[in-house]
Each structure stands twice: as C-alpha cells, then as structure tokens.
Design brief:
353 residues, 2 domains
C-alpha cells in the first residue's frame, strides 16, 4: 500500500504594512519644513555674514550692542532685586499703615478736626479688608484709589505717594492726597439741615434744626453757607446726587451770589424757593407757575423784612425776564440807596420795580 504524501499549508495571514500615526509624522514634517527654509535662505548666507562682519567692525555698533547688553543685565538684576525686596516685611504694604491726609479747607477749629477725624476713620474702614501686598505692586495703587473715591466725602484722589523705608526700623507705606468735597448749601427740612456740595452730592453731615447747634456749626465755617428753603422730598443717601430741579435752582442761584460777592453788600440769610417745580417734563422742560420764583432773604439783623425777588434762577432762565447780569445791575441800583432797603420788596424780574 502506497503512502500518501501531504503538503503542509500555512494558514497564517500575510503580513501587511501599517502606517504609524502620531508624533513621528509631525516631527518629520516639521524637519522637512525647516530643511526647505534653510535651503531657501542658503544663498543669502554669504551676504548675511558680510553684513555682520561690517557691523562688528563699526565702533558705534559695538558700543550700541554693549549698551543694550548692559541695559538688559541691569533690567534682569533689578527684576531679581525687586522680587527679593518685595517679599520682605519692610517692603510689604499693610492697609493699616496707609497714611491719609484729609484736610477740610472750608472748616476751622473744632469743626475741622471733627470732620477730618470722621473722614479718615471712614477711609480706613473702606481699606481695612485689603490684604498685604508688595510695595512694588502697581496694581495696589489703582485699588486704593478706587476704594477711597467711594467715600462720600472724597471729591477725587489727587495722587498717591509710595513711601519706602529709610531707617533700619522703617516700613513701606502709601500716602494718598485727596480732595475733600466742599459744602455749598444747607437744605432745610422739618427736623434737620442736609449739607450738599456744588454738584448736588449729599454729604454725610446733618445739623439738627436747632438755633444754637446751627450757630455753632456756622461759627466753624471758613465761608458763609446759605440755607435753602422749599426743597421737597427726602435727601438720598450720602455720596449720591440729589436729583431735583429745586436743588439745581438753588445751586445755580448760590453760584451767582458767590460770584457777585453779594454777601459783602447785602448779607444773605437764605434762598427761598416759591413755586419752583421739583421735576422736569419728559422733554426736560421746567414750567414755572406765574408766581414761581427764587427769593433772596437778607440777614434780618441788617435788613429786617426785606425780600429780593430774583425770579427764575440761571439754570431755568427765561427770555421773558432780565438776564442774571442785568438783575445784578438792577440790584446794585437799589443798594446805592441803603435807606430804602429795610422792609423793601425788590423785584428784579423787570426793570424799575
């Protein structure tokens, strides 16, 4: 019996070439791009070398290169030194060490000292939650300035000086210089007087409607502060603008009185608003009733029962009345006859009245 020969068949799958993906392909592409770039600029290499050789032979170029290199070294050294100094306690600014100068130039004596202390206490409270930071951090200057200007007493921050330690025990500090708001009017209400500045901002200061307290307050003022009567409503929070046409009328009248220095010839006790509208219409117009006017009330001790009917204030001026300058000229004509002033009703809305 013959033996059958069998052939062994390899059933394994043929090998296939696989494409490797990933960083290797990217690196090859980048290398090819660099090689192409070098090949492109290769013709310029001799020219570049000649330019560099020429530049290096120039004394001015070498000098400029030396200066630039020295400046770079100094910048690096300064940056390292500031970083090291800023991390030390002496060059760390603590808000509790911020020195504040808040001088109310409009007040004197005990009133000035009291207002100054109140302003500085409020400012330190506004800054109390700030964390300690490096004295070389410029951002802290902007943060401190923004915090200070939130205070109702602060008109603006003039500047902030950064003080560095000079002695062995000294520490860094900030010293802001601020401009304090200046009172312009005392607005009379049923139980107190509110104080507002020339922009109509309500200040954090009220005076009880008491003759003795008002007299004491006025004695501490550097300049006269007039009372306004006839402003309706309650004053808004301190630090906000009192949006009232009545208050704007009084402020514009106050500016005329001060500019003309009227208190020297006729001391004014109060500015009274009669029929002055509180609000404008939707188009911004302010309509006065026929008897609406601003009335100046002179000091009763010098001119008892005298009234000066000014009419519409400058902010609500009308072509039907004399201009502010013409009204002042008319008033001067009356002041030239002092014997006729006590008890007089001087109407400045028209000439000869």
């Amino acid at each position: 019996m013959s033996r059958r020969r069998t052939r062994k068949v390899n059933k394994t799958r043929p090998k296939t070439r696989s494409r490797k993906l990933g960083g290797g392909g990217v690196m090859k592409q980048a290398g090819a791009a660099v090689a192409a770039l070098l090949k492109l600029i290769a013709p310029l290499k001799p020219l570049s070398l000649r330019v560099l050789a020429w530049a290096w032979q120039s004394r001015d170029v070498r000098r400029a290169a030396g200066v630039a290199g020295g400046a770079a070294v100094l910048v690096c050294l300064s940056w390292v030194m500031l970083g090291n100094l800023g991390s030390t306690a002496r060059y760390t600014i603590d808000p509790a060490r911020i020195e504040l100068t808040a001088e109310p130039s409009w007040a004197t004596g005990a009133l000035a000292a009291r207002v100054k202390a109140e302003i500085e206490t409020g400012l330190r409270n506004d800054l109390s939650d700030l964390t300690s930071t490096s004295a070389f951090d410029d951002d802290v200057m902007a943060v401190v300035s923004e915090r200070i200007e939130r205070n109702a007493w602060v008109q603006r921050v003039v500047r902030i000086d950064r003080r560095f330690p000079t002695g062995a025990d000294g520490t860094a500090s900030l010293q802001p210089t601020i401009e304090v708001r200046r009172p312009a009017l005392l607005v009379e209400s049923a139980d107190c007087f509110w104080v507002v500045d020339g922009e109509g901002v309500v200040l954090p200061l009220t005076i009880k409607r008491d003759a003795e307290e008002l007299k004491q307050f006025r004695s501490g003022l550097a300049d006269t502060l007039h009372i306004v009567r006839g402003v309706d409503g309650q004053a808004p929070a301190a630090g906000t603008i009192w949006k009232s046409e009545q208050l704007q009328a009084a402020l514009s009248m106050e500016r005329v009185v001060r500019r003309a220095q009227l208190d020297k010839s006729m001391p004014i006790e109060a500015i009274e608003l009669v029929g002055v509208p509180q609000r404008a219409d939707e188009r911004g117009r302010v309509f006065y009733p026929p008897d609406g006017a601003v009335v100046l009330i002179p000091d009763a001790r010098s001119l008892p029962d005298t009234r000066v009917i000014w009419g519409r204030p400058p902010v609500h001026a009308s072509t039907l009345e004399l201009s502010a300058n013409d009204k002042l000229d008319e008033l001067k004509r009356h002041l030239d006859k002092p014997d006729s002033l006590p008890g007089a009703r001087i109407d400045l809305r028209r000439r000869g009245t």
